[in-house]
Write a structure and sequence with these properties.
disordered N terminus; 612 residues; mainly beta; five-stranded antiparallel β-sheet; 10% helix; eleven-stranded mixed β-sheet; 6 helices
């Protein structure tokens, strides 16, 4: 029996251009700049000659003025004139024309070869190139939300001088909404993440776009969206942008079970504690769907610390079942699963997705704040309408969490591996592929079909790593690889044989084997309200035969960290570890904070059934 099945049985009770330079910035002991962006201005824009009068100074080449008084307003969220880009897209360098232009020259790739080709040449136009540190500084700033003020964590190591100051919370600028006749925007409001803490919350917002969505984009809903008696809108482009301290965002819409149609009403007693989230009226009672909360705020149910909305108390009971952790709650239909600060998906011609014209958005948000300043996490999600004559194939999402905790427990100073498989339906067309682990996940690989289906619960059919080279390899849990298949590169799977449609995926978790200083430790467990939730929830699961890791570890599970007896079991007794050692090392196991682990295959596809 797969782990997810065990769980159900046990607990079912994310440029225009830069020019060449005649000079370079000089290294000094301490930077004059008081922010990462100010350092980019000095080190790159001024230091590389981009603000020369004939370039992006007084002449404002290609409409871009990079002088200090104008640069920020000319870059962030400003539409580019080439390709489907903005000049700087907060939190995502791959969508930022500025970054792609300079990276093309530093890294030696062709702009025309990108998924969304860019016209013109790489920059700088002289014989110079941005240094690796220059490029890294720009990348870190963008991925940190491209803030105008404050020090972005990690940027100091790429500065040409000693950049001083504490890291500031990463906040992005609000994302412009689509035009009324082009799409809609959902906004989450801002939930609080205290300094140096981590958490995961669930809350719900209500929306009604029945008066604004043009009729040509409205169709009867499918059964999963509430049935043909309700109206849905169709879309083929999606953009989610959120503050970069997010670890993941799962955004879904709620569909009441048959017979519970009263729960479409946000004033039904099943929905509780509607109040303004964020802004000047934060915490004030509000009317769901209204605009009364003001700027940078949203009327939502009260955020509650939980995992995947399990046991969420401010909505209908069936919304909070354990099935939500595995993407199997029928009342919750996924809009997007993002594990980075930004996520964009453009569906190919004739492929579409749909969502109700009125309804409820479920926000499952997990974030960590590594700074010394309290902050909030906000999200903006834009959906752009699909042309009415391009509605042939409905997009489906891959969220394979059947083996989410399949790594079991991995002892300190060792590594562990788990493998599983996913079979795409016959006539499936793969659009995207990605992966999800937490911080100890160092190597996630996928092998395309053919692969024989496997099952770790059946001897002789265990999942193991194939001996061939993987087709997908990702090594950074915080920046996982996204494979996107477009045009002639869309992968087709027409065979009736399941082997020809089965993907094998494996991950390796390194609990301090390659670097003992990175072993999981009791003393480093996160300050997270989620840990309190786990302390209550984990015993219930354990009583029913399913164990997953809580924050930190119990004394009987600890091993020595440091000293002559490193790795020895110590049962909470530091004296066992010898001079310089402490009883602090913990196993890694399946769980929900970034210190515990998950194993999920993500992606999207559609089914192109042959015409008769």
């Amino acid at each position: 029996m797969k782990p997810v099945q065990c769980v159900f049985a046990a607990i079912a009770v994310f440029l225009a251009a830069a020019c060449g330079s005649d000079s370079s910035s000089e290294s000094v002991q301490k930077c004059d700049a008081d922010s990462t962006f100010a350092q980019i201005q000095q080190q790159i824009f001024d230091g590389r000659g981009c603000t020369a009068s004939a370039c992006h100074g007084e002449a404002a080449n290609a409409g871009l003025d990079l002088r200090p008084e104008s640069a920020y307003a000319n870059l962030v969220n400003v539409a580019a004139t080439s390709g489907d880009y903005v000049r700087v897209f907060p939190a995502e360098q791959d969508l930022s024309l500025l970054y792609q232009k300079v990276a093309a020259k530093t890294e030696g790739f062709q702009l025309g070869s990108l998924e969304n080709p860019i016209g013109g040449g790489a920059m700088p136009t002289s014989n110079e190139v941005l240094s690796a540190d220059d490029l890294a500084l720009l990348r870190v700033w963008i991925r940190g939300g491209a803030p105008e003020e404050g020090i972005v964590a990690g940027s100091e190591q790429y500065s040409s001088c000693a950049l001083q100051g504490d890291a500031a919370p990463n906040k992005i600028q609000p994302v412009p909404a689509p035009a009324v006749d082009e799409g809609i925007q959902f906004y989450s409001g801002g939930w609080s993440v205290p300094a140096e803490e981590e958490g995961e919350v669930c809350f719900v917002s209500y929306y009604d776009y029945s008066a604004t969505i043009p009729s040509e984009f409205v169709v009867p809903c499918g059964e999963a969206e509430g049935g043909p008696d309700r109206d849905c809108f169709v879309y083929n482009k999606m953009l989610l942008a959120q503050d970069p301290q997010s670890h993941h965002s799962i955004v879904e819409f709620y569909v009441p079970p048959t017979g519970r149609e009263n729960q479409y009403d946000p004033m039904d007693p099943s929905w509780k504690r509607w109040s303004c989230l964020g802004g000047e009226k934060n915490g004030t009672a509000c009317t769901p769907g209204s605009n009364e909360c003001g700027d940078r705020s949203q009327c939502t149910t009260e955020p509650v610390t939980t995992i995947a909305c399990i046991l969420y108390r401010n909505g209908p009971g069936e919304m909070g079942t354990p099935a939500g952790l595995f993407g199997r709650a029928s009342v919750r239909q996924n809009l997007v699963t993002a594990q980075e600060a930004s996520f964009r998906e453009t569906l190919p011609p004739d492929v579409y997705a749909m969502a109700p014209v009125t309804g409820f958005i479920i926000w499952d948000s997990h974030a960590f704040n590594l700074t010394k300043t309290d902050t909030t996490v906000e999200q903006w999600m834009n959906l752009e309408f699909a042309p009415p004559d391009e509605l042939l194939y409905k997009r489906s999402q891959i969220f394979d969490a059947d083996d989410i905790f399949g790594m079991g427990f991995i002892d300190p100073f060792t590594s562990g591996e788990a493998c599983a498989n996913f079979t795409i339906p016959q006539y499936g067309r793969l659009l995207t592929l990605s992966s999800h682990t937490h911080r100890y996940g160092k190597d996630f690989r996928v092998w395309y079909p053919p692969n024989a289906p496997c099952d770790n619960a059946n001897p002789g059919f265990e999942c193991t790593r194939p001996s061939t080279e993987a087709d997908y390899a990702s090594f950074d849990y915080a920046d996982p690889l996204y494979q996107r298949f477009i045009g002639d590169n869309v992968l087709a799977f027409d065979s009736p044989n399941p082997d020809d449609r089965t993907f094998r995926f494996c991950a390796i978790w390194d609990n301090g084997e390659s670097n003992p200083q990175e072993v999981r430790r009791e003393s480093n467990k996160p300050e997270a309200e989620t840990c309190n939730f786990l302390e209550d929830f984990a015993p219930l699961a354990s009583q029913n035969g399913f164990d997953f890791a809580i924050c930190g570890c119990e004394p009987e599970d600890r091993s020595c960290y440091g000293g002559p007896n490193e790795g020895m079991a110590c049962n909470g007794d530091d004296s066992v570890c010898g001079e310089g050692g402490i009883c602090d090392a913990c196993p890694v196991g399946g769980g929900v904070t970034t210190e515990e682990e998950m194993f999920i295959l993500l992606g999207s596809y559609y089914v192109e059934t042959p015409s008769l």
